[in-house]
Amino acid sequence: MKIKALYPGTFDPITNGHVDLVARAAVLFHEVTVAVAGDTVKNPILGLEQRIELAKLALAPFSNVRVCGFNGLIVDVANRMGVNVMLRGVRSISDFENEFQRVSVNRMLGHGVETILMTPGEGQAHISSSLVREVALAGGDVGRFVHPAVKAVLDAVSPTRRTETTDKG
Hints:
Blueprint lengths: L3 E6 L6 H13 L2 E7 L10 H11 L6 E6 L3 H8 L3 E5 L3 H17 L4 E5 L10 H9 L10 H10 L1 H10 L1
Parallel strand pairs: 1-2, 1-4, 2-3, 4-5
């Protein structure tokens, strides 16, 4: 049986922690789809299309990984795609508690989609999209946490970085 995995998230922005999880999943599963959420209560700083494009760039090295956007319930998306497994990353106990609740609800709503919780790879536990956004918006260097294309976009949206660039030019 071909095992298809779905890794949903906001990916605002996609980080090296996300890429690490996908790299490990790409070895375990026949196909991995990274599903970027369009309708989210998180108020992303990057638009859906931009987040999809950045994810495609960051995940380009993996031949069995694809990226798509979605709206609505992820269990409905998983069922439409014929996915067997949903992946979620857990960096901490609080992540686990949140994901455990999500797993229970998804089981009630979905049909036959199992959720696998994956822990971060070595050196990745501290990386989160919200932390990367916070550092970027304060003008900090996020290069060690994200793909170069993501860094360039974050530098462009950072008020501090834009001011520094304007002052130099």
